[in-house]
Amino acid sequence: MNISILGYGNLGGSIANGLISFGDLNKLYITKKDVKTFSQNIEDKRCILTSNNLNAVSDSNIIFLTVQPKQFKELAEEIKGHINSDQIIISPITGISIKDLEDAFGNDKKIIRCMTNTAVAVKQAVTSICSNRTGKKSVEIVQNIFKKLGHTMIIEEKNMQAATVISASGIAFWMRLIRATAQGGVQLGFESKQALEMSLMTSLGAAKLLEENQSHPEDEIDKVTTPNGCTIEGLIEMEHQGLSSALIKGIEKSFSKINLMKKE
Ligand SMILES: NC(=O)c1ccc[n+]([C@@H]2O[C@H](COP(=O)([O-])OP(=O)(O)OC[C@H]3O[C@@H](n4cnc5c(N)ncnc54)[C@H](OP(=O)(O)O)[C@@H]3O)[C@@H](O)[C@H]2O)c1
Fold first, then answer.
1. Among residues 29, 27, 24, which one has the least CA distance to residue 7?
2. Can you give the pTM of this predicted structure?
3. In the predicted model, is pLDDT for residue 193 greater than 70?
4. Ligand 1: does its nearest atom lie under 6 Å from the Cβ of 135?
5. Count of alpha carbons within 13 Å of 138, Cβ hemisphere only?
6. pLDDT at site 112
7. Ligand 1 lined by 9 (C-beta under 6 Å)
8. So what's the pLDDT on residue 180?
9. Distance 247 CA to ligand 1 centre (A)
10. Which domains does the chain have, with CATH numbers?
């Protein structure tokens, strides 16, 4: 399978890193306009770093579009005449709808819209996927690629903006939570490195408990809160200070902003 990643930036680079260990990969074209600024020297012989989008597109079965929303129009103009109906186009571009993609490439093309996150580089992404009518039969192929890069979910297109906030921006939100608990550890006397290690491993353990036990967070909280104990004391203070409320308000703000960005 030949794959193109058009737009080697944060996300394109993460997807490339994930795909390099993909057994079915024959060639991986990675493009950006300014090849001098490729930040990474990819040694894998299957990778072709280039600024030539058209060469990449014409030799690929699957084409990822990983440019910024404002760069989409120019890229689409450049490649649209070179895409055939056997190829699969995958777009994680924020705010670019299936209709926008069909307007650019035609509704006879297999179009997949997805939202993933930068954890794709460590094969722990969550990727939400939807498609146009022509692309329906290709969803499984795309899902199988993203399953090798983490978890996948099929969602309705109307929820793509919400998925962007929870899973793509979500990486930043979780980083802040991990940073805050690590800073708390420093305040209690740990060296910064040790505090971060403890906070990080605790967050992984908490997620794993939910995943393996298929439980609700409150079930796991009940198990660690003895009556009148130190955990409930801390939790109640955090809620008095607005922890859950701040997180939900932040998520709502991100959602409003993403909807505004689409209109702009
Ligand atoms: N970062 C995330 O966590 C994340 C998560 C989910 C979705 N997304 C979406 O993914 C897209 C990319 O985000 P990003 O953060 O990776 O952006 P980015 O770091 O700015 O990367 C975009 C890259 O595209 C290249 N580019 C621009 N025009 C091009 C063209 N015509 N042909 C080839 N390459 C071109 C740019 O390099 P040159 O200037 O050298 O061409 C740049 O390196 C965005 O639409 C974003 O909404 C991002």
1. 29
2. 0.90
3. yes
4. no
5. 21
6. 98
7. yes
8. 98
9. 27
10. 2-155 (3.40.50.720), 163-263 (1.10.3730.10)
* Percentage of the chain modeled with pLDDT above 90: 83
* pLDDT value of position 36: 80
Distance from the CA of 179 to the center of ligand 1, in angstroms? 26
The answer for residues whose C-beta is within 8 angstroms of residue 158's C-beta and 6 or more apart is none
Cβ–ligand 1 distance for 163 under 6 Å, the answer no
pLDDT of res. 242? 98
User: What percent of the chain is modeled with pLDDT above 70?
Assistant: 97
Query: Relative to the CA of 74, which ligand 1 atom is closest?
Result: 31
The answer on pLDDT for 24 being more than 90 is no
* pLDDT exceeds cutoff 90 at 77: yes
Q: Which of 112, 47, 55, 51 is nearest to 82 (CA)?
A: 55
β pairing state of 27-31 and 150-154:
unpaired
- Report the distance separating Cα 42 and Cα 170, nearest Å: 28
Which residue's entry shows tokens 């705010």?
Answer: 95
Nearest Cα residue to 90 out of 100, 101, 79, 99 = 101
Average pLDDT, the chain: 94
What are the structure tokens assigned to 67, written together?
Answer: 């440019």
C-alpha 245: how far from chain center:
25
Alpha carbon 173 to its chain's center: 13
47 - beta bridge partners?
28
What residues contact 18, with CB distance under 8 A and at least 6 apart?
A: 120, 121, 122, 123, 125, 148, 149
- The CA-based diameter of the chain, rounded to the nearest angstrom, is 68
